[in-house]
Amino acid sequence: MFVLSGLLILIAPFPQSSKTPQKRLIRIEASSFQFTPGQIHINPNDEVTVELVSMDVVHGLSLDGYDFELKADPGQTVSATFVAEKTGVFRFRCSVACGNLHPFMIGKLQIGPNQLLIRGVALLILSIVAVFYSVRQIPQFQTRLA
Amino acid sequence: MKKEFLARFLVILFILIAVAIPFAGQWLFSRNKTDIIELHARMPENGGWSIDQIDAEVNEPIHLRMTSDDVVHGIAIGKSDLPGVDIFPGEFVETTFVFDRPGQYTFYCTRWCGPNHWRMRGTIDVSGEGRPLQPEPQPLFVTLDIDIDSPPIAETVPTEQVSAERGANFASLLPTYAIDRTTYLSTSPAVLWMRLRAESALSNLSDQDIWDAVAWIWQGQTTPANLENGQRLYAENCAACHGETGKGDGVMARNNPVWDPGNHNMDKSSDSFTGEGFVRPRDFSDPKNLLGTSSALLEGKIIRGGMGTGMPYWGPIFTSQQIEDLISYLFTFAWDATSEANLD
Amino acid sequence: MVRMDLTRYPWALSILRNRWPQFLLRAVTLAGFIFTILAGLFGSTVGSHNFAIIFVWIAWWTALKLIFIPFGGRSWCSICPIPMPGEWLQNGGILIPRGKGFGLNKRWPKALRGSWLQAGGFLLIGLFGALTLTSASVTAFVLLFIIVLAFVLSLVFERRSFCNYLCPIGGFTGLYAQAGPVEVRVKDAEVCASHAEKTCYNACPWGQYPLALKSSANCGLCMECLRVCPSDNIVVNLRPWGSDLGPKTKHRLDEAFLGLVMLASALVDSAVFLGPWGELKSAAYSIGSTPWFIFAGVFLFAAFVILPGFYVGAVLLSIQLDSTRITLRQSLAKYSQVLVPLGLMAWIAFTISFAFAKFSYVLPVISDPLGWGWNLIGYSNTAWVGQSTSLSLLLQIVILAAGLFWSSRVAFRISETPRVALPMIAFCGIFSYTMLWLLIG
Question: What's the structural domain count of chain C?
Fold first, then answer.
């Protein structure tokens, strides 16, 4: 039963947000080893134009979950547009090796509510409920509870 | 006891294999490549090119095996139209250069790799038979004795958006010196405007008409293809400091203070490596700056660089055609921005 | 509880008892360890093209947390190359049990016993983690330092003093091995009781007496006891996960500290390596600078004050709720068990997030281990950017929820009444949520 409700929490459809999509221009500055801004929040179905400005060396921006990548040299801003069709939190990473911490040059783009975090919290609560249920079956506890 | 010795033998054998892999591997891989030069590209802060001087013979190919130890770099030969080769961190790329004339060549980094990117330069000394490289003719700013270190300010600028198209209507009225190339090279737009304004034959024209005519003259000294080439060169080499719109707010320089004659202190020398003491480049989109500047002065700045300003010298890098294209592109910042000039 | 005795199967017994399979693995890992040091010292400075970085921090570190510990407890310790040169010297041979050999054989100072130093070592790795994880030469120097230290200590002190009291990874694996499904125990306690010689204790490099083993934390699964027992009275059991955690096992205060250090490290590593805070990364990387000292201060504050503070608070609360008399010290030690499944699952979730996106680096560094442009197996330069897929994100959630379930269950089982366990469960819940937020949020 707990497994079932756990599954339900993980895959149940989420109500779609009713915010009207809008066009956005997001300028992201990339320097070793950070994106500024590093955290961006937009609404589902927004038409997003990302402008990547490189501040020191050649950097890239590749967005998890989307087929979206930019590469920019300092002095040569690049931009591209995509429609935020998928909701959730997506990490974007530098896609051009830019030094030691390059693998950890990460930012995050939140599209709509963070469903996964909400599902996660629900699952955490469920697991505590499940513990209460499971310890009731341990004999010595039954006597103690009684 | 036999087993014990076998075990000890195996331990030693395995360790020997582990040690042998790097050394034997290096020997195997470099055996047939004795004439290959391994060149590591590093940011100037990390040491720059691992080799910054290469000796070669005329018509003898130079084989380079290159990699980057930190960020993306590139390599190209100065004063040549050959495209650069990109060098990616941890990846190896090979290229071959052949020179058919003796002389000193410059190789340089083509991808911005930090504020000191332009310092990534090295020389190739090519010796042997052949017609040596021609020394460059004296740049115009030297023969004209222009002081390129005191940036001139245009005494007058247009009050409305100029139009080269409109200016074309007055072409037949212009004196011959106005459309002469030497005039374009040695005179700033503002100075030419004042000369034309003083011409009695043009007294019927308004101030704006004459600005339009000057813009038309400037346009006539270049071609769309040259402008496009200039734009590309500007984006790749200049925009990181001068800004993509020419405002002097490029990513490498935008945190520097704006130049102000009041706080300029000649005794305080600037630190050219850290950039401390540098100011922002001048705003090309402010017509007061470029319209007072002649092509010869810009050429001088590009070839020689700025003294203590952080502006690198590009003499060994660009061909004279490339510098000419760049200059024509630079002037478009001023012409395109003239409409904004009267806003302030 | 259900146990499966592996020694009942002749093939398993011979694999475990024969010295050769283990010796060959050890010889290979030792050679690999030396190769890793060489690669780190002489190979490419570009981490993603250096065997040392990818194999230590992506391949091995992941395997340790996802395979060795969850499915074998301290199984890595059984084939770890680090103590081997010293131990072979101590024993006077490779295939020889403990006995006559070199070394001063001194006892480890009493004051330095327990996991305190291991916890400190783990913190030290964390403080310099951003540099160590990304610089091949620093990784090589750390490995070199560790193996030399282990060697020198084995000449001065008896047995595996380095592993027992110093090795940070030993602390990590030992702590979480209590949750692992493997144990070495005696078959029949009567047989041992009547055997005065204690062959097994004398042979144990870890200084354990199998008859007294209640927890697998300090047993390195080296199988020496199995090999020397004259009565074949040693068994290797597969057991349910978490068997060492319960009301009957004894725990010490240093285990609680070790557990809390691991929790703090999991949080800080998640924030530094997986978070979107670039300044934090730069601070953690620029060792010796003011931002780094601030970072180190915050890290140590989290490890010494914040997490222990919450933990002590939770334990104090549960003492209030408890009707039986139990001292704070006992309680702090007892509830350290709760930190074991909580931390293990948090580290697994972190590893999934950290390493899965980077696995594409593994084949290329086999193809070109030193980053010198070789292409041994044709996979050089095939690495891609990598990303976290929705599957790996879901997996992280499930793992964290399972960790919360498991640790709460342990809390219940070791508490007198369910009420007493509540503060501890709240502690676990807050930690799990923080971890969830760092990984998913």
Answer: 2
A 52-91: CB under 8 A from B: 53-58, 73-77
- Specify if C45 maps to a domain: yes
CA distance C22 to C358: 30
Residue numbers of the domain that contains C269: 253-349+385-440
Residues 357-416 of C with CB under 8 A from A: 357-358, 385-390, 393-394, 397-398, 400-402, 404-405, 408-409, 412-413, 416
Mean pLDDT of C151-167: 90
Name the CATH superfamily, with its identifier, for domain A20-122.
Cupredoxins -  blue copper proteins (2.60.40.420)
Section C396-400 average pLDDT: 93
> Mind listing the pLDDT tens digit for each residue in A110-138?
998 888 888 899 899 998 888 888 877 66
Whole-angstrom distance, CA of residue A134 vs CA of residue C425 = 14
- Give per-residue pLDDT as tens, B225-275: 999 999 999 999 999 999 999 999 999 988 888 766 655 554 445 566 666
Distance CA C332, CA C254 (A): 10
Specify whether C262 is located in the same domain as C404.
Answer: yes
CB contact under 8 A, C398 and A123: yes
- The pLDDT, as a whole number, for residue B271 is 60
Output the 3-class SS for C202-225: HHCCCCCCHHHCCCCCCCCCCCHH
Q: Higher confidence at residue C331 or residue C294?
A: C294
pLDDT, tens digit, 9 for 90 and up, residues C12-24: 988 998 889 999 9
Q: Cα(first)–Cα(last) distance of chain A, in Å?
A: 25
Token readout for B304 is: 């020689």
Beta bridge partners of A71: A60
Interface probe with A: pick from B67, B70, B73, B233, most Cβ of A within 10 Å: B70
Domains defined along chain B, listed by start: 36-127 (2.60.40.420), 140-341 (1.10.760.10)
Distance to chain A for B250, nearest Cα, Å: 6
Q: Which residue of B has its CA nearest to C25?
A: B11
Q: Which residues pair with B122 in a beta bridge?
A: B107
- Dihedral angle at the C-alpha atoms of A24, A78, B119, C50, nearest 10 degrees? 90
β-pairing, A68-72 vs A59-63, is antiparallel
DSSP-derived secondary structure for C308-326: HHHHHHHHHHHHHH-SS--
Structure token digits, residue C273:
């390596």
Using the Cβ of A98 and the Cβ atoms of chain B, whether some distance falls under 8 Å is answered with: yes
Say if CB C234 and CB C187 are below 8 A apart.
Answer: yes
- Centre a 10 Å sphere on the Cβ of residue C355 and count the other Cβ atoms it contains: 21
Instruction: Mutate one of A36, A51, A73 to test the B interface: name it (highest B CB count within 10 A).
Output: A73
- C39 contacts B22? CB cut-off 8 A: yes
Rounded mean pLDDT of chain B? 88
Q: Please state, in angstroms and rounded to a whole number, the distance separating the CA atoms of residues B61 and B69.
A: 25
